[in-house]
Amino acid sequence: MRAAALLAILLATACGATANTAGDWKPRGDVRMIVPFAAGGGSDLAGRAIATALEKAQPGLKVTVENREGGSGAVGYSALLGKKGNGNYLLATENAILSLPLSGQVSFTRKDFTPVAKLAEDGGILVVKKDSPFKTCTDVINAARSGRVSVGMSGAFGVDNVIFTMIEQKTGVKFQRVPFESGGELVPAVLGGQIQVALLNPGEVIGQFKSGALRGLCVTTDKRYTYPEFADLPTAKEQQIDVSYVQFRGFLAPGGLDGRERAYWEQAAKGVTKTAEFQKWLKDNYLQQAELYGDDFGKYLEQLDTALAPVLKKPS
């Protein structure tokens, strides 16, 4: 009996040691959050908001944001690719993680990274400057049928490219694309007449909307915004343009992490949406909270990847 009792104690001790070992990983020193686009755009705002919320959700955690722009996001993603197995690095991700590989411009895919969390969704608004002759998205399509319409994009393979490609496929028109590195560069480009139309997130244009410098033509969400500042804007579908697409906001870790590192970051991510800082970012930038973690986020990426494949075919 004494032997059986001793065995039970040893087994319990061993199980406890295993459980503690599985949950004792923490980042060593500062964590680096890579933002694969320039400062000032929606991706930069998202990365900084998530970094701040992570610090609030995990007392003692320090997250430093680093902009690694270039190649429509490829430079930043490639930087994370080189940190395989290093749990001290993160990346503020959005739809470029899928559109870049589908474009055939990079060698990596979503499978090379560790999906941590999808936290929010960000809709798009087609905007023009206040004195533009375009009053609706239908006006833009009609103009493109008979002439040149220049459209700006924050990255040649970003969400803007996806939406404009969808519009082209649905309507048969062709736009003249003018790529920029971030949404922050698109606003002055529209205001300065370098481009006629841009697709921007609400948070990127709210100041110009309030001042009257920019006007919205339609939104690319399934339903109209409930935010009063944008509630009057019709959807593209309401204007007989059968397109809807949103940009997700979240973060990845490098590939090759072990179970303890994955568990730490997924748990940390679940605390992000509970912070006042994150909720303020949602409200200030007119986003919708939309959460998926770990494997569920990975499945979402797989499904979206499949849906995007017909839109962004690799060059033959």
TrEMBL record:
Keyword vocabulary terms for this entry: Signal
Alphabetized Gene3D superfamilies for the sequence: Bordetella uptake gene, domain 1, Periplasmic binding protein-like II
Pfam families in the cross-refs: TctC
Extent of the signal sequence: 1-19
Matches recorded under PANTHER family: BLR4371 PROTEIN, TRICARBOXYLATE-BINDING PROTEIN
Superkingdom of origin organism: Bacteria
Protein name: Tripartite tricarboxylate transporter substrate binding protein
CDD domains tied to this protein: PBP2_Bug_TTT (cd07012)
Organism from which the protein derives: Nonomuraea marmarensis
InterPro entries xrefs: BUG, Bug_dom1
